[in-house]
Amino acid sequence: MEHHQYVRPQFRLLYTALVVSMVGDSSMMLVPPIAMKDLTGSAGAAGLTVMFFMLPICAAPAFGWVIDRFPRRTVLVVACVLSGTALVPLLTVDDAGDWWIVYAVSAAMGASYVCVFGSVTALVKDLVPEHRLAAANSAIQTVRQGLRLGGPLLGAALYTVAGIGAVALLNLASFLVAALLFGLLRPEAPGPPRSRFVLWTELTAGVRVIAGSAAIRRSVVAICTMFVAGGVTESAIFVVSDGLDRPPAFVGVLAAITGIGAVLGGLAATRLISRHGELGAIGAGTAVHGLAVAGLSIPALPAVVVAAAGTGVGLTIPFIARVTLLQRSTPASLIGRATTAYDGIGGISQVVAITGGAVLVGVVSYRILLPALGALVLAAAAYTWRGRG
Question: What membrane topology term does the record carry (predicted)?
């Protein structure tokens, strides 16, 4: 009982520090592509900022070894300090010749995402009793999605008024404050003696965890299928907007509606996991996402609005459930590598899908493409649902 009473303040401190860091992250979300569009005049150059952000996520298992090898608190503090430092070059961005700085910082933010959220996933497992893991993960994910509603608008407005340097300073301040708060966490007890370092064994440990669990393997099928559908939808959503006779800026409205759905999904996730288990929740959420992707093809504004909200619900519930499944299924000494390996698999799926989607939307009607993707996601949902329990 005393341990659980102590754990609650520790989790609140972790949660507060994470929220502070996410305020800065969310404000920076739209700024790199907007800045690249302003610097180069190229929409393609702007879109590549997402690709550079995803590249470190594809190499996530290397970060997982760091998370498992060193104290989580230390990794979080160092990651936040380095992330803030990596933003400083944005203060020098002035003309088109500085394009490489924006890409380099985007890649650094991708690496920051892997380290921070991988470490947080591991720390939540350390700090929270098993029966409360789903609630803790839901709380983190709900506030993260909530910040995505207002944060990007704040960042875009600040960029318009004061430039990219002002947004970088805001994000830098959030990282430094978060580092101070993470540093207040109680030091971890020493773990068991570490075995001799063998590069291949260490880097593939997380993949072996995933491959060795039937439940985690089923969840990977669902999550990666959703990432594929989401990657293609990144490009198709502009065609959907055209089909509704709306300007390209309407995509921002749909993104906000998706964020509202994500918050609702975060609020519902704990109950779903409690009732159906992690795989059941992943299956149910994936099914919602599949129906929503297909619904985006309906050429009617009310249907598209409902579908946009559904994609948010359908992404968030499986994300929370898969994190909880990893925490419950994986030894503490491997949780960092398992989490980052999972992120790497998903990141590769998404990068491939974004690239392929940019081609597909030009040759296949979205009214055929999106229902086909929705059917694929529903098949993955059924496969995952059958493994529950």
Answer: Multi-pass membrane protein
